[in-house]
Amino acid sequence: MKLLKSLTFWIFAGFVLGVLFGYLFRESILPIANPAATIFINSLKMIVMPIIIFSIASGILNIESGKELRKLGVKTFFYYITTTTLAIITGQILVTLVKPGSNVTNLVSANVENIPAAEGSILDILIDIIPTNPFKAMAEGNVIQVIFFMILFALIIMRFQDRYRTFFNDFFQGGFNIMMEMVRWIIWLAPVGVFGIVAGIVAETGFEAIIGLMKYFFTVLGGLLFHAFVTLPVILSLAGGMNPWIHFKNMLLAIETAFFTSSSMATLPITMECVINNDRVEPKVANFVLPIGATVNMDGTALYEAVAVIFIAQAYGIELTFVQLIIVLLTTVLASIGAAAIPMAGFVMITIILKAVGLPLEGVGLVLAVDRLLDMVRTTVNVWSDSCGAVVVNNLSRKET
User: Fold this and answer.
1) Which CA distances in Å does 101 have to 73, 217, 322, 367?
2) Burial (0-12, 13-18, 19+ Cβ within 10 Å), 109
3) How do residues 170-229 score in pLDDT, each as one tens digit?
4) What is the mean pLDDT of residues 377-382?
5) What distances in angstroms separate CA 118 from CA 314, 336, 354, 355, one per listed residue?
6) pTM for the model
7) Max CA pair span of the chain
8) Is the separation of the CB atoms in 154 and 351 below 8 Å?
9) How far apart, in whole angstroms, are the C-alpha atoms of residue 209 and residue 219?
C-alpha cells in the first residue's frame, strides 16, 4: 500500500505539472513531453505481448479440468456480454433523451480526410481471429489472434501426459512471475509518462476542443460515469460479493494508468498486478479473465460508439427506427469485440456501425474534436469493467478454484 500511495501522489503531481507546463509553454514543451510519453507507453507495450502469452497459458494450465475451464469461460463470456449490452443500452437511452445532435446540424460537413474507412464486415473481423501465422500475429501485436492461439495451445497441452503439462506449467508460470516483476519496475516511470502525456495533450489541443460539442461531450461522459459508478458497482456487490469502494481503492493505480495512457492493453500489466495482489483474485482466474477482457470487453468504447452513431443520425436529421436501434445494439457489441485489433479503433468501428444502419460515413468527423478527451474516460471504464469482471468470475468460481 505504501508503494500505491507513493505512486498515486507522484502520478497526480505529474498530471498537475503536465497541465501547467502544457498550457504555459505550449510548443516549447512538446520536444520534452512527447519523448517522455513515448518512453513510458512503449515500456508498457513492450511487456503486453509476453504477459498475454504467459498469463493465458499459465491460467489455463493451472485449471484442474476441462469442465472447470468451460465453467470459467461461460461465466467470463456471460459477464462481458451482459455489461457491454447494459453499457450500450445506457448510452442509447441517454442520447435519445438528451438529443445532442439537434444542436450541431450546421457541422455535418466536417472534414474527415484523415479517418480510415472501415474495410470488410463484422464476419470478416470474426474470421480474422484465427491467425495464419501466430508468430507474425505476435510480432504485429494482433492481440486477439494471439489469445486465440494461446488458448488452443494450452488446451492441447492439457491433453498430454502429466510430465509435459508440468514442464509447460512451470515454464509459463515462471515467465508470468518474471513479467509481473518487470511491471513493478516499469510503473515507476508512470509520473514522468503522465507528465509527458498530459503536457502534450494540453499543448496540442488546449481547452477549446469541447466548447462546440458540450452537449454531446457531457452526454457521453454522463453515460460513462453512470455505467462506472452505478451499473458496475451493483454487479460487483451482488455477483462479486465485494464492496465497490474497496475495489476502487485497490484498482486506483490501474485506473490512473488507463486514464492517462488511453490504452486497456498498455494498462493490462498493472491491472493484473492490482487484481491479484490487492483484490486477492486467484491468479489462474485473473490470468484467464483479464487478457481476454482487455481485448473483447469494451464497455466504455461500446457506449461511446452507440451514442456517437445516434448523435450523428440526429445531426443529419435522420430518425432511427426501433429495428435500426436494435441493429446498432447488436453491431456495437460485435464491433467492440474486434476493436482492439484495428488502428483508430473507435472511429473505424463507428464507420462499420454507420454502414450497418445506412448513415453517412463522413459523420464521424463531428466527434473528432472531443474524441481525445472522451477516449481517456472510456478506456478507464473499459479497465474498470475488466477488473470488476475478474472479481465477479473469481467469486462465482470460488467452489471450483
Assistant:
1) 40, 11, 18, 11
2) exposed
3) 888 888 778 877 877 877 777 888 788 778 777 776 655 455 578 888 999 999 999 999
4) 90
5) 22, 14, 10, 9
6) 0.69
7) 69
8) no
9) 16
Q: What one-letter code names the amino acid at 130?
A: I
Q: Which residue's C-alpha cell is 500505491?
A: 4
| Cα gap 16→35, rounded to integer Å | 18
User: Counting every residue, how long is the chain?
Assistant: 401
- Contact between residue 41 and residue 290 where contact means Cβ atoms under 8 Å apart: no
Residue 77's identity, in one-letter code, is F
- Cα–Cα–Cα angle for 210, 263, 62, nearest 5°? 150
Other CB atoms within a 10 A radius of the CB of residue 261 amount to 25
All cell numbers assigned to 211? 466548447
Q: What angle do CA 338, 55, 188 make, to 5 degrees?
A: 95
Q: Please, is 189 exposed, middle or buried when counting C-beta atoms within 10 Å of its C-beta (0-12, 13-18, 19+)? A: middle
Task: State the Cα–Cα distance between residues 307 and 224, nearest whole angstrom.
Answer: 11
Which residues does 289 contact at the CB level (< 8 Å), separation at least 6?
A: 72, 76, 386, 389, 390, 393, 394
pLDDT (tens digit per residue) in 164-177 = 778 888 888 888 77
Single-letter amino acid, residue 227: H
